[in-house]
Specification:
It is built from 6 helices and 16 strands. By secondary structure, the chain is α+β, with helices and mostly antiparallel strands. The protein folds into 2 domains: about 120 residues, Probable inorganic polyphosphate/atp-NAD kinase, domain 1 (Rossmann fold); about 130 residues, Tumour Suppressor Smad4, CATH 2.60.200.30. Strands 5, 6, 7, 8, 9, 10, 11, 12, 13, 14 and 15 form an 11-stranded antiparallel β-sheet that branches. A 5-stranded mixed β-sheet has the order 1-2-3-16-4, with helices on both faces. Strand 13 and strand 14 form a beta hairpin.
Amino acid sequence: MRSGRAAPPLTAHGSPEKHGATMNPSLQWRAVQKARSQMRQAAGRARSGSPNFAKIAFLSSGSPEADAALKKLAKRYGNSLPGEADVVVALGGDGLMLQTLHAFMKTKRSKSVPIYGMNRGSVGFLMNEYQENGLLERLGSAESSTIHPLIMRTRGNDGTLRTERSINEVYLFRQTYQAAKLRISVDGRERMAELIADGVLIATPAGSTAYNLSVNGPILPLDATLMALTPISAFRPRRWRGALLPDKAKVRIEVLEPEKRPVSAVADHTEIRDVAEVEVEMDHKTGVVILHDPGHSLEERILREQFGY
């Protein structure tokens, strides 16, 4: 991700400020009227409790389309450093959105800095439509959704311990031509002694429409206090379709015959190979906020996805 540089100061009519220049009286009057209008809008936001996004940080996926959009938006709205911004606007696709959510999930301000995406990529389920005009108004009226990530703790075949977080899902997948053999326990109680499959995944409600849906897992409403446990190409038991678990449950998956049947564990875009055991639970203490235009909230998109077959 790359952030653009702030543009030079602009006059009321949008051209770079020139020191010592005098403004045309008609333009000066327009500037006064615009300033008054902006003051009234700010006062209205303060009375209504709407957020005031004075500082915006723009982030680009690095594609030509995203870089061009960043340059235009930064010139028009300014571009703050991400650590000082009131809101982060991500320009790209869902991949960039996940990276941005992860980046701000690791900061102390992650709960208070919302992320607003505009689609300049190929897949935009998490993104809003790209428009240059009216960004401040869109941000002010946007609907927020809070997402809690999954925590994945792994122990490797060599004893190495790792911890990662995931917005969408955690999944285990075979590394070779041989199917994985897995034992599944929930809250310390064994629930399946042996699953023979390509793998298994645990998805959040926000991630239930991603990989989980592709392997015929259930779509979960965003406010559901559930996680989806879904097999990936199950061989035995062949008819098992997975389970819905409380979002306070702790899932433990042991890899049987790990040397003969090696397995990887993946948390969003982070892969850990040759795992022997994986524990997964939801991190209710960490929340990331994502913004969408009215009528296009993440909750509405997940609901709409259930009728889009």
